[in-house]
Amino acid sequence: MRAKIRDTEIYFDVEGSSLVADGSRMREKPVALVIHGGPGADHSSYKPAFSPLSQKMQLVYFDHRGQGRSARGPKETYTLDNNVEDMEALRQYLGLDKIVVLGTSYGGMVALAYAVRYPQYVSHLIVIATAANYRFLQRGKEILAEKGTDEQKAIASRLWDGTFENEQQLHEYFQVMGSMYSLTHDPSSPPKSWSRTILSIDAINIAFSSFLRHYNVLDQLHKITSPTLVIAGRHDWICAPEFSEEIAQAIPHADLRIFENSGHLIRVDEPEALLDAIAGFLVYKT
Question: Domains, the chain, ranges and CATH?
Answer without folding.
Answer: 2-284 (3.40.50.1820)
